[in-house]
Amino acid sequence: MSALLPGTATLGVLGGGQLGRMFVHAAQALGYRCIVLDPDAISPAGAVAEQHIRTDYLDSFGLAQLARDCDAITTEFENVPALALETLAGMRVVAPSGASVAVCQDRAVEKAHFEAAGVPCAPHAVITNDIELAAVDPALLPGILKTSRMGYDGKGQVRVSTAAELAAAWDDLKRVPCVLEQLLPLKAELSVLVARGADGQLVNYPVQQNLHRGGILAVTEVPARAVPADVQQQAVAAARQVAQALGYVGVLCIEFFWLEDGRLVVNEMAPRPHNSGHWTMNGANASQFELQVRALAGLPLPELRQHSASLMLNLLGDLWFSDEGGPTPPAWDRVLVLPGTHLHLYGKAEARHGRKMGHLNITADTPDAAHAVAVQAAAVLGLPADF
Ligand code: ADP
Ligand code: MG
Fold first, then answer.
1. Does residue 298 lie within any of the structural domains?
2. Same domain, 195 and 169
3. Fewer CB near the last or first residue (10 Å), C or N of the chain?
4. What's the CA-to-centroid distance between 180 and ligand 2, angstroms?
5. Same domain, 218 and 328
6. Same domain (yes/no): 178, 201
7. Atom of ligand 1 nearest to the CA of 184
8. pLDDT band at 84 (very low <50, low <70, confident <90, very high)
9. Whole domain around residue 214: which residue ranges?
């Protein structure tokens, strides 16, 4: 298949959130036109694309319009109905494929894929009925019960210690299909972003170390200073193996747990650019969004090079509510005076608690220097210095 040359083609995105917005920015920088399909009248990506189709993801007219007017289509989040991607696949190039997205949408299917690829994940059991519930191995407790589908940012998860708590938690989750995972002692959380082209070319960024607060990513640091080289190599090899085994095309993020005993297990994956890869916008020769554009357009992928030590702070809506009274924007001027700071805001009109409003990238010559600036920025913003 020949490449869609920059300046000649239109790219479509299902989903109008911040990931779609940063994809659109990268695509437009290369001279592509963009069309976003999102049901909301006001959306971060819809606001910057040349065109916004405002329909539901399964609306056949909306999908047909997107297919007619775009040369290639991608998705910004995995909970877009796989059916929408499959519908589009009959019409236009779609990367990642509906089949890959379907694997990532379901934790049980995803874990089976990891095991088939020979990459270990957390000990777990699938719970879809009372017989499976009763048969759960007590060794999995204490554990985390997670809905198989639609979970993100720690939503749809309950920690349970006993069989009785497990049964009650499953009732609370409306007895939808779930996965019970053993609660593992984590030393750190890591992720690896890979991109694979339609021709099979596979590239990856270095291992990213991630800190979560309340189930939401808070900080990403690259290089992952605390992680020994052999563990990093293992993570990169596992991520490449998973992408290869899926025959994946596009950007894929694989999350890992690095355990207290030094073992590495895979947690989950996302078939798209990922929050933990936002540092690449300022710390690498090409951003994860440019890679997604290139993979979608069938252009060659660049050899990746991290040119600066990087640290990313996620900016949640909570930062707008640090004082009494109504929401007020943080003191960006006092943040941007710090060396190597790069602010990215997503254009969301209203700040809300827990809402991802933007991120701050910090780049420096050394990891220590990036860390020192990040601590200063965190102090200005009122964020904890727990990283
Ligand atoms: P989400 O789709 O919401 O990101 P995850 O499965 O990644 O769901 O879980 C969110 C966070 O919960 C993880 O980043 C980790 O901090 C914690 N967590 C999840 N599973 C486990 C586990 N088996 N053991 C220990 N901590 C876990
Ligand atoms: Mg996760």
1. yes
2. no
3. N
4. 15
5. yes
6. no
7. 24
8. confident
9. 186-381
User: In this structure, are 244 and 311 located in the same domain?
Assistant: yes
Average pLDDT over residues 225-236: 96
Contact 246, 103 (CB under 8 A): yes
User: Any residues with Cβ below 6 Å from ligand 1, and which?
Assistant: 122, 144, 146, 151-154, 181-184, 186, 189, 212, 215, 255, 267-268
Cα of 139 from ligand 2 centre, angstroms: 23
Q: Nearest ligand, CA of residue 152? A: 1
Q: Give the torsion through C-alpha atoms of 310, 311, 315, 316, to 10 deg.
A: 130
Mutate to test the pocket of ligand 1, among 144, 145, 265 (most ligand atoms within 8 A of CB): 144
pLDDT at position 150: 84
Write down which residue in 135, 161, 182 finishes a domain: 182
What CATH code is carried by the domain that includes residue 70?
3.40.50.20
pLDDT (tens digit per residue) in 234-266? 999 999 999 999 999 999 999 999 999 999 999
- Shared domain check, 210 and 155: no
Atom 22 of ligand 1: nearest residue by CA position? 183
Tokens of 131: 């017989």
Q: Which pLDDT does position 22 carry in this prediction?
A: 98
Residues 178 and 317 in one domain: no
Task: Determine the distance separating the centroid of ligand 1 and the alpha carbon of 26, expressed in angstroms.
Answer: 30
Summarised one tens digit per residue, pLDDT across range 188-205 is 999 999 999 989 999 999
Q: Is position 106 within any domain?
A: no
Residue 192 shares a structural domain with residue 247: yes
**Long-range own/partner contacts, residues 339-347 (CB < 8 A, 24 or more apart):** 339/364, 339/373, 340/308, 340/364, 340/369, 340/370, 340/373, 341/373, 341/377, 342/281, 342/282, 344/22, 344/278, 344/281, 345/315, 346/17, 346/18, 346/21, 346/44, 347/21, 347/44, 347/47, 347/48
What is the number of the ligand 1 atom nearest to the C-alpha of 156? 3
The pLDDT tens digits of the residues spanning 318-330 come to: 999 976 777 899 9
Q: Which residue has its alpha carbon closest to ligand 1 atom 9?
A: 154
Atom 21 of ligand 1, nearest CA residue: 183
Which of 140, 257, 260, 261 has most ligand 1 atoms within 8 Å of its beta carbon, as the pocket-test mutant? 257
